[in-house]
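Suppose a colleague, Dr. K., hands you the sequence of a protein chain of 275 amino acids and asks what its three-dimensional shape might be. Before reaching for any lab equipment, you can write down a predicted structure in token form. Begin with the sequence itself:
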Amino acid sequence: MSTNCNNDCSSCGENCSSRTAPQSFLKQLHEGSSVGRVIAVVSGKGGVGKSLVTGLLACEMQRRGHRAAVLDADVTGPSVPQMFGVEGPARGGEDFILPCQSMGGIQMMSMNLLLPHTTDPVVWRGPIIAGAVEQFWTDVIWDNVDYMFVDMPPGTGDVPLTVFQSLPVNGVVVVTSPQELVGMIVEKAVNMAGMMSKPVVGLVENMSYYVCPDCGKAHSIFGESHIDETAAKFGIPHVAKLPINHEFAAACDAGKIETVEVPELKELADYIERM
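The predicted structure, expressed as tokens, is then:
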């Protein structure tokens, strides 16, 4: 230990041999950016509607008069721009990128806004993908964003780890579907959030049931829901169950997700608004 050490690790460099305080991996925003709350939307596996929920939550907050944004961290499978009907390329300069905006004013950045063609594959290794996600945070000039929703890739790999360590995540929303197998994988996502000391603020079960248009009865197409048990087990404060609704898919395919309102997400949005 240095004889001049005052035990104030905030005043020393990262390579100080006497450092005892935990090192922060948080990355700084661009000097022209301002972001309030950051909500990570995750899933243990793909195909459960994580991007849909991300988009719907952003739309709900924008509809309430807040300035919402979506950071599409699913670099190899980006779908956010298409849901909002937004096309690139994003503009920028030597040291900054400007986010694109939807018709309703939601700011967003996605790899598909930077590629020459939206169908071009991103064939990169994990560290490069993680670096790109960091740049979406550090190099994009986010304009007075109140709520940023980060659409994570499925699983618990490099990118979720990068987001949890590099961005000041205030809360996590976990998206799932009713199958028993998916429930097991959901616990992995919840446990990862716990390992990273990030609070899970909501559990959303997509494709939870189907309402028959003839008799009005709800049918559990993919099996009975266990989401309430999972939420109780982990102390997750809010649960939302979304129905199977062809209008959701049709709106996303047409780039009109902002026209969709989902009452089942309003309580979760209320909670996020109070954070």
